[in-house]
Amino acid sequence: MRQTTFDLDVLRTFATGVDLGNFAKAADRLGRSTSAVSAQLKKLEQQAGTPIFQKSGRGLALTDAGETMLAYARRLLDLNDEAASAIHGIELEGWVRLGLQEDFGETLLPNILGQFARAHPKVRIEARVARNAELVDRVTSGRLDLALAWNIGAPLPYGQRIMDVPMCWVGSVNPNMLWQKSDGDPLPLAALEAPCLLRTAAINALDRAGIAWRLAFISPSLGGLWAATAAGLGLTIRTPIGLPKSVQLIAPEENGLPVLPKIGLDLLRADSEPAAVTARLASIILQALQEFVPVRAEAA
C-alpha cells in the first residue's frame, strides 16, 4: 500500500475554512484565490480517498471522514507550528498574565501551559482562574494580558469572538436524584453566586416560559456547584465544556424545560497590539480551543 503524505499547506487551508465557516473567507485570510482553495480541497479529498464534504442546504458540511480529517489536521498543524516556534522563537522572553474560568482550568490550562513552556522556556506565565466578571475587570484594567470570558452580547475592549457555545440544563447522572417535573412544584436550581451570565439567562428563560423556580443551592465555586448537582439538590446551567462524570446534560424538550440560548466565548486582550509573548500565547489558546471544543462548521 502506497504511503500517503498529506500536504500541511492544504491541511491549513482546510482547517482555516472550517474554522471560519466559509472557504471564501479562508481564501482572503490566507491570501489565495478561491479557485486555488478549491483546488487544494479537491487534492485533499483525492489524498484521503473518500469524500470529506457533503451538501447541507446551500452550503457544505463535513462528512464523518471529514470530521476525522479535521481532528488530525489540527494536531499536525499544531505540532508543525510548535516546532517552528521552538526553533525560530525560542528567544522570546518576559512574562504574560492569563485568566480563565474554572470551566477551563483543569482541562484546557495544562495543555496550554505545557505547549507554551516547551516552545518558549524563557517566558513566565502567570495564570489566574476566576469568575467571569473578575476576568473582564482585570483585563480592562490591565491586570491581565489575556482572558477567556463568556459574553452574551456586550462589546468588550479588544475582544475576539472565538465561538458560540450552547447553554445546557445539567443534572445528576443518578436517576434517583434527577429532578422530575410535577405540577405546582417549582424547579430547584443550583447556581453560582451572582453575577452569573448563565444563571441570569436560565432564570429569564424560565420566566418567559412561565415555569416556577427556586434557588435551592448557591455556590461561590464551580466545584461546589457540581457537587450539589450530582447530589440532586437541583438542576444547574452550564455549557458542555468540562462536565464531570457525576452529571449529565438534560434534554429540555423531554423534561418540560425551555431551550436555552447560546453564549459567546471571547478571547479578551488588554491591548490592541499585544506584545510578542502575549500574541504567541493567544495563538496557542485559539489552537487548543479548536480541539477542546470541537464545532461542526458549515462551509460555503
Descriptive report:
The protein has 300 residues and is an alpha/beta fold. The chain contains ten helices and twelve strands. The strands form four sheets. Strands 4-3-5-12-6 form a five-stranded mixed sheet, with helices on both faces. A three-stranded antiparallel sheet has the order 10-7-11. Helix 1 packs across helix 3 and helix 4 packs parallel to helix 6. The longest helix has 25 residues. The two termini are 34 Å apart. The C terminus is likely disordered.
Run of helices and strands: HHHEEHEHHEHEEEEHEHEEEH
Number of strands: 12
Uncertain stretches of 5 or more adjacent residues: 294-300
For the largest sheet, list the strands in their spatial order: 4-3-5-12-6
Radius of gyration from CA coordinates:
22 Å
What order do the helices and strands come in, and which of them pair?
Blueprint lengths: L7 H13 L2 H8 L3 H15 L4 E4 L2 E4 L1 H25 L5 E7 L1 H4 L2 H12 L3 E7 L2 H9 L5 E6 L7 E8 L1 E5 L14 E6 L4 H13 L3 E7 L2 H9 L5 E3 L8 E4 L11 E8 L6 H17 L8
Parallel strand pairs: 3-4, 3-5, 8-9
Antiparallel strand pairs: 1-2, 5-12, 6-12, 7-10, 7-11
Helix pairs in contact: 1-2, 1-3, 1-4, 2-3, 4-6, 4-10, 6-10
In short:
This protein is of the alpha/beta class.
What are the key terms here?
300 residues, alpha/beta, five-stranded mixed sheet, 10 helices, globular, disordered C terminus
